[in-house]
Design brief:
Thrombin, subunit H, 402 residues, Pdz3 Domain, disordered C terminus, six-stranded antiparallel barrel
Length: 402
């Protein structure tokens, strides 16, 4: 009985030796087996002799590496480098060309290319360089400054490879994403990360990106306009801006980048196709978001929603019979108008804040008829409104028309 533990130890040692000598060279620890996977090469020269340990054969890629390579090979031919040229003037008022760079991706065989508006804004010349280094002059087909989207086109270019756009909006925090673009002019660069969050963020112009995709995939100046891809190589967003390190002397990745969701881009493209321009739907009202504290102070029948302060003359809401405020009051030093209709639902979807209303509008088109549920005093009403076509407004805040 006393020899049984010794016997078991001997069996385990023998089994381990047999496994490591017979099977490990083809397994996960193959790289550690010097005699099985590497050899020594001697070389000599004026500086002396060297003994180099070299692998006998190139290792096979693991599953994760194969996926990375597959995404890159699938997406790269559809990614382009965009160079925009503006004419600026020096101290002596002499014209001097100034160039900026960004990225984009091919949408179809006709040469349509999607990018950010800020990549080509105010450019006198736009050029597109394909993955095979061939360069073409591009024309600007349409822009939507509100969503920072621009549509370009190159003509008479054979064998273009369009990107594959994702058909799902069900993005999940934690899923892998890939960014391909031209950071700092280094074309064809791919980085990988995850979706860190999905949130509303403000662009430098003051406009907001609804449901922006936040990612830790490294993106830098030059990535703007390029595709953000899922693990199947499908475009889920347009890389558009980064959060920079305030202590850095240059704009570079701080591990927080943002992309416009591809669903937003598709809606803009649909407007371009239908109307030749972006048509942003509007209710033509000035609003005030309502929370429990404000609702209690002014005696509203619901502790959430959007209060209509003002209805714009001749706009969609005025035509539908919605009412703005009639009593002036102050919130701190800010004047507000109370007594207007309180919007609590949009086509049956509860509206609790300004972001809910913005998301609901972005899913619609100008000319669509929607049903708003409002409180007028204590009376709950359903009112049909035909959305109008908003003007392109740069900047904004909670008191801007929607």
């Amino acid at each position: 009985m006393k020899l049984r533990p010794v016997f078991l130890v001997l069996v385990l040692v023998c089994a381990f030796y047999w496994l490591t000598t017979r099977w490990m060279p083809t397994g996960a620890l193959a790289g550690l087996m010097h005699s099985a996977s590497s050899s020594t090469t001697n070389t000599s020269g004026p500086l002396g002799s060297f003994s180099l340990t070299e692998a006998k054969a190139a290792p096979a890629f693991d599953d994760e590496e194969q996926q990375n390579i597959g995404v890159y090979k699938k997406a790269l031919p559809s990614v382009v480098n965009i160079t925009s040229t503006q004419v600026q003037y020096d101290f002596f008022l002499r014209p001097v060309p100034a160039q900026g760079q960004g990225s984009g991706f091919i949408l179809d065989k006709q040469g349509h290319i999607l990018t950010n508006n800020h990549v080509i804004d105010q450019a006198q010349l736009v050029e597109v360089t394909l993955w095979n280094k061939k360069k073409y002059k591009a024309t600007v087909v349409g822009v939507d400054r509100n969503h920072d989207i621009a549509l370009l086109q190159i003509h008479d270019v054979p064998d273009l490879e369009p990107a594959t756009l994702s058909t799902t909006n069900n993005l999940v925090v934690g899923q892998k994403v890939y960014a391909i673009g031209n950071p700092f002019g280094f074309s064809g660069t791919m980085t990988r990360g995850i979706i860190s969050a999905i949130r509303s963020v403000a662009m430098p112009s003051g406009n907001k990106i609804d449901d922006a995709i936040q990612t830790d995939a490294s993106v830098n100046p030059g990535n703007s306009g390029g595709p953000l891809l899922n693990s199947r190589g499908e475009v889920i967003g347009i890389t558009t801006m980064i959060a920079t390190n305030p202590n850095s002397q240059v704009d570079q990745s701080a591990g927080i980048g943002f992309a416009i969701p591809i669903a937003t881009a598709k809606a803009v493209l649909d407007d371009f196709a239908r109307y030749g321009r972006a048509r942003r739907p509007s209710l033509d009202i000035v609003t005030l978001p309502i929370g429990p504290d404000i609702a209690e102070q002014i005696g509203l029948p619901a502790d959430y929603g959007i209060l209509i302060e003002r209805v714009l003359p001749g706009g969609a809401s005025e035509r539908a019979g919605l009412r703005g405020g009639t009593q002036q009051a102050y919130m701190g030093n800010t004047p507000v108008m109370l007594g207007g209709d309180l919007i609590v639902a949009f086509d049956g979807q509860e509206i609790t804040n300004a972001q809910d209303l913005s998301n609901a509008l972005n899913a619609k088109h100008s000319g669509d008829t929607v049903t708003l549920t409002v409180f007028r005093g204590r009376q709950r009403l359903n009112i049909k409104v035909t959305l109008s076509d908003a003007k392109q407004v740069i900047g904004g805040g909670q008191n801007m028309p929607v």
